[in-house]
Amino acid sequence: MTNEQVGKYIRLLCLQHQKNGQLLSERDMLYICETYDEDVFNKFTKNDDGLYYNERLKDEAERRKRYSESRANNRKPQQTYKVKRYSNICLSCDNHMETETNILCNTCYSKSNYKKEGKTTHADFYKKQLELSGDDPGYKSFIMFLYGKSEHNDTRCDNILAIKEQLTYKQFILIQNLYKSCNLDKSLREIVLSMQNHKDIRKKQSLNLTLQNWLRNEAKWQK
Asked: Do 104 and 140 touch, CB atoms closer than 8 A?
């Protein structure tokens, strides 16, 4: 999406949030978009009544509601004795409050698992970028691939993850466009694995620039 479309999308999310994650009318949509914008409208689900909602935001609103209820319930007296009265407070952060992004981050790149080995996780970086992307499936698949949690790759790409500057969502879109323009025989996944197997790749500063150069070189070699 263009910067203008992203702005419209975020404004619609804010409006839905103000309505407690509920439904938007077509009038609401057109008030912000001014005209029908397919890319923006496709980010929202239209129900049988002709009302729109973003599924992720709706789920988040319901999750927050359950969270508030669980916090309130956990602080209700459960037993007679004062010592045991609040024994279940630690349960106030149950799994039902985790977002899909949190689950993805926790399962794919737990900091504690790799800190002991001196490996970099970039967990916070990719968590933020994934949220900014609106949980873009392609970007999510790329992240899962890097962390060895993909059906196409079950080995963590530690050499690539050692690169200081990882791939932002905007850079990922640019890389996808560059890959398509190169008309390569290899898939993007195969190219990433080739990079991972290169001994000097972890010395690189930027994953974005390294991928760009790698794609252009692949295009030259293919000719």
From this structure: yes
The count of other CB atoms within 10 Å of the CB of residue 113 is 11
The pLDDT value recorded for residue 77 is 57
Orientation angle between helical segments 188-196 and 169-182, nearest 10 degrees: 110
CA distance 157 to 200: 13
The rounded distance, in Å, linking the Cα atoms of 104 and 141 is 11
pTM of full prediction above 0.85: no
With a cut of 50, list the residues of the chain below it in pLDDT: 79-98, 103, 107, 109-118
Check residue 208 and give its pLDDT: 95
Cβ-proximal residues to 33 (8 Å cutoff; 6+ apart), any chain: 8, 12, 40, 41
Chain center to CA of 55: 15
